[in-house]
Amino acid sequence: MLGSVFALCSAFFWALAVILFKKAGDTFSPISLNIYKSVVAFALISITMVLLNIPFFPGAEPRDWILLALSGFIGITLADICFFTALNHLGAGMVAVVECLYLPNVLLFSFILLGERLSTGGIIGSMLVLSAVFVGSLSLKELRSDTRNPGNVMHGIIAGILAMVFLSLGIVMIKDVLEHSNVFWATLVRVTSGCLSLFLIVLFHPKRKQYMAELKYSRAWYTALPASVVGNYIALLCWVAGMKFTTASQAGTLNQMSTIFIFIMAAVILKEKITRQKLIAICLAVTGAYMTIFT
Question: What is the pTM of this model?
Answer without folding.
Answer: 0.83
